[in-house]
Amino acid sequence: MTRGSLPLYVETRWNFTYLMLKQDIKFRGRFDRMESEDKLYNDHFLEIDNDNRKKIGPPSCNDWQSVQRMVNFLGIFYQSTLVVSASTTLNAHKCYGEIVNIASKLQLLCCSPGSEVKVKAEEMYLKFDKYWDRLKNINKMLIIVTVFDPRKKMQFATLCFEGLYGKESSTSTVLGETLLLILRNMYNEYAERYNQANVQVQQAQAQTHAETSSQNKSQNTQETQDQSQDIDEEMLDGYNPVEQRYNTLLREIGVRDTNELEAYLREAVENPEVMMGIEFDILSWWKVNCGKYPILSEMARDLFAMQISSVASESAFSTSGRIIEPYKSCLTHYMVEVLMCTEQWLKQDIKVESRVLTNAQILAEVEYEDDLQREFGALNLDP
């Protein structure tokens, strides 16, 4: 849709209705001017249609107010749809927040004085409540993945529970305890797998080290025999490097086994300062902190990979349906795959070229401009 154009109404797509009404509001002044100056525009609404009924219009002040209320109502779902249906960006940690946002706004609209919006909101909330059962039977993974957002952690989930079911209510308390129980069980499972993998790696390293030491020892023995040097074997057997003695000391005094999950939840939430138009990169944060939270980083990797909508798969089927048609039905599966991948790569290239500059790029441009100003300032000072 080009800038300033009016989208057409499509009965089967509510988002086109929202876009059409939203764009129409911007042209309200022109509609009013046409009503006062254009006779043909007014005569159009005086005509009789095929059902012997007068056409509705032109839009009055009350009509524009109704349009504005409908735009506000549909905007709730439109913005959430953009977040949930995104298939090329990370959105698993945003889904639960959007669901709670829809539920909260529908509850407010059910109490609004506007009769039309109130009726629509009540109908939508009944369907919403029936589907989610007041968000009690929702997949807990959608809530757990929000905990792995370092800006939210458990505080965000607790806030959502209290907003939906009341502060310090039994339902919010039970949901919070259930969420922590699932988190701890998941962490224990991942920790067991992580420890088993570490044991295997350590065993392999120890075996390699033993083989290397044996080879070095045999070589040293051969060299010492050639050089006729006597070495006290008892002294070598009784000698331990500093690292080995320190590890033995740690085993004797004991070291507190820290739980990554509890440590992560105890720490304060992140409050990163990002520039306007630049989104906080959660994957980069976990990449930087994977050494601090090795087990949690594996959990985050699996949780963030969840597909929360079927938009990506449906888009793939839709694209393949446009490629394979009666006039192009002899394409091989390999060629269909090549065409679909090429389309996605071209779209990704266009998106990369039009994305917002990063902080490093902005700082580099600022420094470059400062250098130019200093250079031109020095030239102007020269006699």
UniProtKB/TrEMBL annotation:
Which is one GO molecular function term here?
A: DNA binding
- Domain named HAT C-terminal dimerisation is located at 260-346
What's the superkingdom here?
Answer: Eukaryota
Q: Where is this region: Disordered?
A: 205-230
- Specify the hAT-like transposase RNase-H fold domain's residue ranges: 88-190
Q: Where is the composition biased (Polar residues)?
A: 208-228
Record PANTHER family: AC9 TRANSPOSASE-RELATED, BED FINGER-RELATED
Q: What protein is this chain from? A: HAT C-terminal dimerisation domain-containing protein
Lineage of the organism = Eukaryota, Viridiplantae, Streptophyta, Embryophyta, Tracheophyta
